[in-house]
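Bumping my old thread because nobody answered last time. Still need a sequence for this structure:
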């Protein structure tokens, strides 16, 4: 590795577990306790206890990235930021450099309701203030949704992604998704969530999906379209299963 190009090729071809280190079995007890503390705080604790338990959990998660600096509970005269994650330039994959950027803002929400539009707008403002391109919510529930993909918080983050020409992206992880990180890789999930949002927005042929399918997540809609082609005899079973596998690799597991 005597030049940047060679090193970048090495990083890009490394498995995700080399970018975000899987939780080792010796740390399972610690991780389970962090998850339990969050659930207990959200059942019985104060807002402060809820926020602190979730911030502690996410600090553990973020610090499993290699070649980063993690700052938590940063306060200024204007606002308070739960996490700033800074990747080290030159030792990150092309995906991080091109789509995430070297600075990520993490916000942990201390309530057990869906994330609202105002919270999405506030995080977008933090990204602007801190010269960051990528925001991550951690929360008890996901983004609030309406009758269309453009309503409420889910719609707000889509509109902002379009407004910024995909240069600023906001995604979210629920506590349940974080709890499954003994089986799943956080970096893999991050990439899947990015592609779910961006590829969906770039899909101009939205009329291809029925109204009922439009309520489903993007990767499910893709699979249902593939399934319809199989039912009509346009593709065979092997193509269907291969397509399903590729959809799951790119966008996330299909619970079917």
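Sorry it took so long. Here it is:
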């Amino acid at each position: 590795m005597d030049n940047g190009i060679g090193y970048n090729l090495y990083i890009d071809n490394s498995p995700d577990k080399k970018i975000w280190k899987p939780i080792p079995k010796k740390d399972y007890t610690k991780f389970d306790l962090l998850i339990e503390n969050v659930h207990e705080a959200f059942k019985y604790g104060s807002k402060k206890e809820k926020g602190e338990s979730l911030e502690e959990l996410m600090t553990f998660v973020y610090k499993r990235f290699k070649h980063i600096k993690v700052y938590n509970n940063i306060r200024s005269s204007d606002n308070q930021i739960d996490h700033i994650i800074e990747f080290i330039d030159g030792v990150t994959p092309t995906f991080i450099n091109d789509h995430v950027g070297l600075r990520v803002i993490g916000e942990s929400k201390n309530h057990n309701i869906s994330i609202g539009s105002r919270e999405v707008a506030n995080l977008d403002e933090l990204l602007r203030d801190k010269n960051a391109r990528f925001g991550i919510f951690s929360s008890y529930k996901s983004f609030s949704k309406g009758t269309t993909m453009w309503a409420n918080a889910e719609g707000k983050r889509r509109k902002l992604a379009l407004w910024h020409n995909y240069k600023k992206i906001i995604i979210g992880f629920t506590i349940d998704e974080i709890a499954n990180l003994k089986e799943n890789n956080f970096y893999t999930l991050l990439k899947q969530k990015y592609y779910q949002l961006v590829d969906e927005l770039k899909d101009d042929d939205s009329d291809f999906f029925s109204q009922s399918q439009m309520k489903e997540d993007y990767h499910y809609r893709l699979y249902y379209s593939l399934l319809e082609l199989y039912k009509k005899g346009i593709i065979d079973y092997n193509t269907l299963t291969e397509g399903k596998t590729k959809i799951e690799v790119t966008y996330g597991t299909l619970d079917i």
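The CA atoms of residues 230 and 238 lie 10 Å apart. Let me know if any region looks off to you.
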